[in-house]
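Deliverable D5.2: sample structural annotation.
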Amino acid sequence: MDSWQTTLCLNHFLDQKSVIEIDEELNVKYKKKTILNIKDLAKVEAESDLQELKLYTKESVNTSEPFSFSWHEPNYYLLLKTLPLDLFQQDIQNEISDLFQSLENCEICGYKALHHKYCLRCGNEPWGQVSSTEMIMKEKQII
């Protein structure tokens, strides 16, 4: 992120940030353009740490040019959750299922997205998990 972007209001910042969107018809939109439909996927590859996805449509399987997404992109985990498990490698299906079954509510954003002291939705740690040193620093930032 460039330093000038930190001065933008939230609306302008979000306008410049690429966000993964999924509509009711399961169209995946990226940079406000529909790039694929989840129903057209032939296979999905995920890194063992689930931090990167490669989506292959029936056409792109032959060309080896997948649609790639990283966990840094907003709504990445929404995309991961929306994809049918049977499209993933067999060895990773249980890990994906376990991830979403073990989530807890985030007290900051309100979504059920808290995983191992980190919110997959807003990227924050819950207040109760912050060390006393970090809490003092946060209090000073507020003042």
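Annotation notes: Strands lie at 20-22, 27-30, 33-37, 41-46, 52-57, 67-70, 104-105, 112-115, 118-119. The chain has a mean pLDDT of 83.
The annotation will be released with the project's public dataset once the embargo ends.
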